[in-house]
Amino acid sequence: xxxxxxxxxxxxxxxxxxxxxxxxxxxxxxxxxxxxxxxxxxxxxxxxxxxxxxxxxxxxxxxxxxxxxxxxxxxxxxxxxxxxxxxxxxxxxxxxxxxxxxxxxxxxxxx
Length: 111
Description:
There is one protein chain. The chain has 111 residues and is of the alpha/beta class. The chain has one domain. The chain is 43% helix and 22% strand. The chain is built from four helices and six strands. It has a two-stranded parallel ribbon with strand order 1-4. Strands 2-5 form a two-stranded parallel ribbon. Strands 3-6 form a two-stranded parallel ribbon. α1 packs antiparallel against α4 and α2 packs antiparallel against α3. It is globular and about 45 Å long.
């Protein structure tokens, strides 16, 4: 059964924990819009990205050599821990914001 999470116009005064310990499958979508957090936020920690991970592996041949190397490093990290993969994926997306991986991950997180 597909899972769709939409959070819009959320305003929190203080600290917040949001979407931690989440498993993203092929049929999941998460949409976050217009969030205001006045404090510290813990978001998307311990996220299991098994479905996007498989799609990223299939998409390596579409990436530039630099992006593919960076993604391979992130995928190797995923063998050790989901959090390690997520940290490497965040770093990768900062460096390749317009790359293939950004498109693949965006298609799972925001639909």
